Sequence to fold (311 residues):
Amino acid sequence: MKAIECLKYGSAEHLVLNEVAKPTPKDNEVLIKIRATSVTTSDVLIRGLNAPPIPRFVVQLIFGFGKPRNPVLGMVSSGVIESVGKKVTTFKAGDEVFAYGSVSPTKRHFGSYAEYICLPEDWNLALKPANMSFEESAAIPYGGLLAEHLLKKTTIQAGDHVLIYGASGSIGTMAIQLAKHAGAVVTSVCSSRNFDLVKSLGSDHVIDYTAEHAEQQLGTYTYVIDAVGNSKSSTLKEQSKKALISGGKYISIDHGTPLTPKDAFLKLKSLAEQSKIKPVIDRVYPLEQMADAHQYVENGHKRGNVVVTIG
Fold:
């Protein structure tokens, strides 16, 4: 089968299209013919390994030294089940599904930059939302699960004011919709070119983080949600950490290890089927242009998700 392999850490040019062995499902696994995957910020960070010495060492300890232990990256997939293991009872050949190859920090599986992938039936795997395409389904899990991880640290009540920093990315666009679904009044921080996007997702107020004296537009919030973490900062972001009501809370994607339990995955599927959330897709690339997709994500200005189609 065709797959994109990361031959060594570094620039996107190390992502190469190769022929590799097609996987065979174990008794409890399904074999998925992948139709779409996505390029996430995490994929780019792993591939580039652009981190200070200690975090760099930790990343290589987890993923492999010199090059990824599993050279086929990618954790998001949508596609059609081609075959199932003999103990699988939940799915059958022909089912259209979407998946995220992680259910816990110790149970994860890369390999979606390829034509096929095998996953256990009890992982984050479900029939894809019937009202969404394969491309849209592939754009749900990463941003949705990380946004859900952030929102689980809140107890949003109707009318609570929530500020989302980094609102136009894959996590932020989902965080807006989940916060609105919980009844919040949402203020989105992004560049002015993304104002129409975040407003279309339900944002009540917007702040351009590039504007002079943008911090003067801050109100006070029950929750300030940082969807970009330490990778980006500004005077506005530093001031937003203090723009809290008494008992308010600042929550960053960099605080703790994100959890991706199956109940959260199934919640996203349900909300998508009810049209309560809709993934945002910025660009779509074919598998052969994976390096270009990585370079675009690495530039740091994508809106929502970057999807890669296969086959």
